[in-house]
Amino acid sequence: MPIELFNKGEHRCLMFCDIEHGDGVQSNQFLIVDNGTGAVIDPGGNLAYNDLYVGMTGCFPPHRLSAIVASHADPDIIASLDRWMTATSAPVYISKVWERFVPHFCKPGKTAGRIVGIPDGGMRIAVGQSKLVALPAHFLHSEGNFQFWDETSGILFSGDLGVSIGVDPATTITDLRPHIPSMQAFHRRYMVSGKVLKLWASMVRSLPIRMLVPQHGAPMAGAAIEQFIDWVSTLECGIDVMTQRDYSIPA
């Protein structure tokens, strides 16, 4: 069953987090519903497809889906794309960096005319009477990477930024400090540099974020959001912590 992150009249935000992944990494998929249409965010791989598709059809018919939105092009983000191309007529929004790679997930010709390359500066994507704002999040962790700000709910869908490992995704983190150990190793490895994190932190401080929801692990709300922004803005990671030892010829 999906977790309802937000519900106000004709606008809902749903998170699917308990889909059976077998040996795959735990991941969250998201459905935005607005006035009889909607968008799926980071729809995931084939292991996630059935539950997300059924959940969507419980809200509106498949032909009413207005957008398939991807933060980047990893398999746990869009490996199920071929099936979404068959079941719906929705366009795919993804960084222009990955625009020509996306067809590799589908049978020949299925993505023709249906890929919208998001420019580096981001854009606004209409979903019913609301909008998703594609926010630049390049190198966090992908070269072409976006997060999605839902203006109506105040939820920032943050992709791989904010991931917690081993934390029940059905919980909500309201105090970051006990959870830093579940986040630190992931962020030090998967985020490219502290410089990029500082730039991101400066951008999002002006947003009225009600909830920050990553693609893996648990959402953050309340004081944890500002605590997280403060924490990552001083974090050394990626190329900051690389040394010659990491670039040695194996014995």
Automatic annotation (TrEMBL):
Residue ranges annotated for the Metallo-beta-lactamase domain, each copy included: 26-216
InterPro entries: Metallo-B-lactamas, ODP_dom, RibonucZ/Hydroxyglut_hydro
Pfam families recorded: ODP
Organism superkingdom: Bacteria
Entry-linked PANTHER family: HYDROLASE, METALLO-BETA-LACTAMASE SUPERFAMILY, METALLO-BETA-LACTAMASE DOMAIN-CONTAINING PROTEIN
Protein name per its UniProtKB record: MBL fold metallo-hydrolase
The species this protein was found in: Roseateles amylovorans
